[in-house]
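Good morning N.,

You mentioned wanting to compare the apo and holo forms, so I went ahead and generated the holo version with zinc ion. This is what I fed in:
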Amino acid sequence: MWKTREIQNFVLSIIFPQFCLQCGKETNMTNLCPDCFATIEILEYWFCPVCGKRLADKGVCNNCVSKTNLIGIFSASPYIDPLVKKIIGYLKYEPYLKDLSKTLADLIITHFSLLNNDNVNRILQNSILVPVPSTKDRIRIRNFNQAEEIAKELSTMLNIPLANNVLFKIKPTPTQVGLPLWQRKQNIKNAFAANSENLRKTKSKKILLVDDVFTTGATMEECAKTLKRAGVREIWAITAAREF
Ligand SMILES: [Zn+2]
Ligand SMILES: [Zn+2]
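and this is what came out, ligand included:
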């Protein structure tokens, strides 16, 4: 049986055929053909969110436990992969191809399947997905928050609830591109606020923070710190790509 969404996509693909952003072949609604998707490197390991050390198992390396509010991070692909960069660029900047959030969610799911499944399943259990928030100004330009779009796709694929009303960005920040870590940290300090009442309603003590790219970790850390102060015990990060 076809799901409503598949029927919608099928009808739309007849009216508005989609072309692969990489090779130009006609493809489905996600703007990337399966052949080009298969060329993307998907990471088979964990890494420390603080020092970047490759880890065989989950979490943070022993030296960095006291330096982070995260229990660990999942990052599907290296951002240095030109196609990954292209996908994220087309989603975040013009032409704002919103469907590419599904491609990024597919990368994350494939990454999960390449890791130790028992560990991953245990981490995903009883969790909720929380997108890294964007300010209203940014959302107005793009019409959507890319982190939330990726989180929505993951929520559907993994059957994990999504909460977009527990963490908010309360201070606009200048673009972080090209800035050193200390400056990023300073810019993002106190930029987020948690809604304790909505958090209580979710009844979850475990949050999976979702974003498109993990660069220096300054944004993720600030989000995690804010949620921890609001009483969340376990905070994980999930991103489609990692830069360092
Ligand atoms: Zn292609
Ligand atoms: Zn480390």
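The two ends are 43 Å apart (CA to CA).

Happy to go through it together on a call whenever suits you.

Best,
F.
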